[in-house]
Amino acid sequence: MNETDLKEIFEKELFRGEIKFDEPMSEHTSLKIGGPVDIMVFPEDPVSLKNVVCAANRENIPVFVFGSGTNLLVGDDGVRGIAVSLKLFRSIETTKESSENHVVLYVGAGVPLAMLVNLARKYGYSGIESLAGIPGCVGGAVYMNAGSYGTEMKDIIVSVAIMNSQGEIIILKEEDLGFSYRESHFPEGSIILSANIMLGKDDPSAVESRTREILSRKKASQPLGESSAGCVFKNPDNDTAGRLIDAAGCKGMRKGGLEVSRVHANYFINSGHATCRDFAHLMEAVKAKVKESSGIELMPEVKIIGNEK
Length: 309
Ligand SMILES: Cc1cc2nc3c(=O)[nH]c(=O)nc-3n(C[C@H](O)[C@H](O)[C@H](O)COP(=O)(O)OP(=O)(O)OC[C@H]3O[C@@H](n4cnc5c(N)ncnc54)[C@H](O)[C@@H]3O)c2cc1C
What we know:
Elements: H1 4-11, E1 17-24, E2 36-43, H2 46-58, E3 63-66, E4 72-74, E5 79-85, E6 92-94, E7 102-108, H3 113-123, E8 125-126, H4 138-144, E9 147-148, E10 151-152, E11 157-163, E12 169-173, E13 191-201, H5 204-221, H6 241-247, E14 254-255, E15 258-260, E16 268-270, H7 276-294, E17 303-305
Parallel strand pairs: 2-5, 3-5, 4-17
Antiparallel strand pairs: 1-2, 6-7, 7-13, 8-13, 9-10, 11-12, 11-13, 14-15, 15-16
The structure holds flavin-adenine dinucleotide.
Flavin-adenine dinucleotide binds next to strand 3, helix 4, strand 9 and strand 13.
């Protein structure tokens, strides 16, 4: 990889933020799987991001964006190129479109979803109670159209600011983003910088109690404290992947250091030394058993990045 331009950027202080070389992705994914990425950057501001993106574009170096890595399966051989995370883009501000009945918030891509949910319960902003308990950052949640218990990110998004691979900032409206179940259609190479979201105004104690209710339902039904990438497969129409995997007798199935969760069958748990190869094998085995028992072909929800060994 020709890193001349990038070195110049880092050395000439055209970049503010953190830089890591040969950084294991396993330290940046909730599943704790993934080999090293050549360069990992955490820009502090849009200008630093733009300088990296434009240099990478000139030098033909691939750029991969991630948030908190809670929906990622990264190859054991890692990722070539530059991994960018906007974890330092953490501002939340009230915008002037807010009114008596609703509030429009500008939320940076690096804001943890949990921080947004907590802010909403404190001020009585309604509409995201059901998203409580989903880990990860707002950028990842927007890209994935994350959701649960009937609410998806698309329901609260007004517009999204992106940076394209030329380093230009563009504002896109919700209706232009092709959101559907765990899908969005951003222009290729888009890096989500922030989202404007609209929430209702309610009594803080009502928002608090609905949020608590969701959290306790999730704690009872999902393995939240263990190393996983959330749901491995998307739910097919009119059924859930978890029910189908359970019905196919896959709970507790193992491959290397990975196990199909006994709490929720659509979660694979890394009990210590699992590899991406183990994950891929377990996925295939579970898919085959579900196909055999129900005739349904499960499709992955986790995003798979980089090279397997
Ligand atoms: C225990 C557990 C429970 C979960 N529960 C749920 C749930 O109930 N509902 C649900 O929907 N999900 C759930 N998830 C999955 C995951 O938390 C969500 O998809 C989350 O929104 C991903 O955010 P992230 O920052 O971790 O994204 P990452 O995993 O880092 O990235 C996910 C995808 O988004 C892209 N991306 C990330 N940031 C950006 C950006 N700034 N610009 C452009 N693209 C970007 C990445 O390239 C990748 O394709 C769960 C995961 C775990 C581990």
